[in-house]
Amino acid sequence: MKKLLISLAAALICTATASAQMFTLRVEAGPEFAFSSLATHGVKVLSGGTKVGYHVGAYADIPLYKGLYASTGLSFEMKGAKGKVKEDSSLIGQLGSLINKNTQNEITMHYLQIPVNIGYRLSLTPSLSLAAQTGPYFAVALAGSQSSGIKGAITSFNIFKEGILGLGKANRFDVGWGASAMLYFGNIYGTVGADFGFLNVAQTDAKSIASQLKDLSLKNSTAYIGLGYCF
Q1: C-alpha dihedral sign at 66, 136, 50, 41
Q2: Model-level pTM?
């Protein structure tokens, strides 16, 4: 699936480059705020803060009918979660000394992401316009790590080899739904949006100790702002 996503991304870029006259090409970047968290039975396991990441991407908007358009492209996104294991979490009771409630945990995942959106752009004046779009996204994590510990004694490990909280290998793939709005002033625009993942990215290894916790879940939830430029 990783090779398929990368091949699809390359095809999208080549197609957009070859047919630039048919597209509105744009680039954007900005901070991303992850408010996802590990949960069991729908109750959060980690508590304590929002993880700040980034998003940077290149997109092609394809006119369909009047202000209606389709949009796709390629972006790099940093998502994850952070916090301490809550004292009343079921993980404390089930796994005992394997989970330290005083340890700060930070999960970081770097994604290659392809959105497929339908949007509408409304011109207010010759130089000012508004747009909104929504649709699914498909993503693969190129790298992922977890850092755990207290100040001065922090360890880091690969979540795709050693798992999240040591509870099974993480899932590299994600599928979700996103929505965003843009305010254009000439070729420059500002954007605000959010993505919500559908897949559990916390574990894939059924042979690990995580098999005892089939309800353990981490689904990506992010909000972002950014600045962009249209060509």
Answers
A1: positive
A2: 0.79
